[in-house]
Design a protein that fits this description.
Oligomer: single chain
Shape: globular
Structural class: alpha/beta
Strand order of the largest sheet: 3-6-9-1-10
CATH topology of the largest domain: Rossmann fold
InterPro entries: AAA+_ATPase, ATPase_AAA-3, CbbQ/NirQ/NorQ/GpvN, ChlI/MoxR_AAA_lid, P-loop_NTPase
Number of strands: 13
Number of helices: 15
Pfam families: AAA_3 (PF07726), AAA_lid_2 (PF17863)
CATH architecture of the largest domain: 3-Layer(aba) Sandwich
Protein name: Magnesium chelatase subunit I
Order of helices and strands: HHHEHEEHEEEHHEEEHEHEHHEHHEHH
Distance between the termini: 34 Å
Helix content: 40-55%
């Protein structure tokens, strides 16, 4: 299996156009980028370089994590044990100069263990809220499907509204606020199925595959040479919260043609009419696809979104938001198969 997060992934990052490229675009009736993405490119390359100090391969995964970061979205990482899901999330957090927190979800975890609790202060004769570990900018939730529904529901408000309401008081989360969650798709004992409402709050669901033979050889060589373990200290913070906020503002100003907005709506709408689906995607999926495409275009050096950006991200945005009918599941179908069919059915705007 390739190291790409899924079978749709390709690593086709595009640099800013040269003078020759601009001239060719002009001759073809297209506009060259009007936005200077040099700062964004520098920061993105710095993060990739830091991740590369420890992680071998996974370039496509790194690009998608950066896309989610720029789009202000949460990510669910799914893969078998040992493919560096947790390590990648921890390393990404270390590249940002922001508070980081890690939660290990277990069956006995309570909502107060995540959100925090009110503690009575006798000297003040009042209750004082003590924030839980969710109050951080980058929150890693390891094995998110091991906590029961009561604890899972505690994440609904904080993931969507970036706030926690306790005893009638609203406590806003720090900015940025991103949840990176991991889960094992194979192991079933001691796990709980994630509620659809929570899955819908993740911008992407990324399937982390095995490395290639060449990459696994490189991993073995590094370990044999004494670079084993998890040398987190090798990775340095290269982007501040202020830098990230500026980059996100740049991404929000990306140009999107009206016909592409219609294309997104038609793609997502088709999931609600497909005969092989019991549950289609909501308008939140349309927004996720739009925001993700804008961030991906910026990462690839463009200030405009193309249909290819939307097609590339469609599986990551939709696979966890749709449910197959029992008949399609018995036939061995997968959500990605349905997404492929829909992409082939909907006419691509040009």
């Amino acid at each position: 299996m390739e190291n790409t997060p899924d079978s749709f992934a390709t690593n086709t990052a595009s640099p800013l156009p040269t003078a020759e490229t601009r001239a060719a675009l002009s001759a073809a009736g297209l506009e060259a980028p009007r936005t200077d993405f040099s700062q964004l490119s520098r920061h993105a390359e710095a993060i990739r370089r830091e991740l590369g100090k420890v992680i071998v391969g996974q370039q496509a995964l790194a690009e998608l994590l950066l896309t989610a970061l720029l789009a202000d979205g949460h990510v669910l990482l799914e893969g078998v044990p040992g493919v560096a899901k947790t390590l990648t999330a921890k390393l990404l957090a270390r590249t940002l100069s922001v508070p980081f927190s890690r939660l290990q979800f277990t069956p006995d975890l309570m909502p107060s263990d995540v959100l925090g609790t009110s503690v009575f202060r006798p000297n003040k004769s009042e209750f004082e809220f003590r924030p839980g570990p969710i109050f951080a900018s980058i929150v890693l939730i390891d094995e998110i499907n091991r906590a029961p529904a009561k604890t899972q529901s505690a994440l609904f408000e904080v993931m969507e509204e970036r706030q926690v309401t306790q005893d009638g008081t609203r406590y806003p989360m720090p900015a940025p606020f991103v949840v990176l969650a991991t889960q094992n798709p194979i192991e079933q004992e001691g796990t709980y199925r994630l509620p659809e409402a929570q899955l819908d709050r993740f911008l992407f669901k990324l399937s982390v595959g095995y490395p290639t033979v060449e990459e696994e050889v490189a991993i073995l060589q590094g370990h044999h040479a004494g670079f084993g373990g998890t040398p987190l200290e090798a990775v340095q913070a290269v982007v501040s919260a202020e830098d990230l906020q500026q980059l996100r503002e740049q991404v929000r100003r990306q140009h999107v043609e009206p016909k592409l907005l219609e294309y997104i709506a038609r793609l997502v709408g088709q999931t609600r009419a497909h005969k092989g689906l019991y549950l289609g995607a909501s308008p939140r999926a349309s927004l996720a696809l739009l925001n993700g495409a804008k961030a991906l275009a910026a990462l690839r050096g463009r200030d405009f979104v193309t249909p290819e950006d939307i097609q590339y991200l469609a599986p990551m945005v939709l696979r966890h938001r749709i449910q197959l009918t029992p008949e399609r599941e018995m036939e061995g179908g997968t959500p990605d198969d349905i997404v492929k069919q829909i992409l082939q059915q909907i006419e691509v705007p040009r």
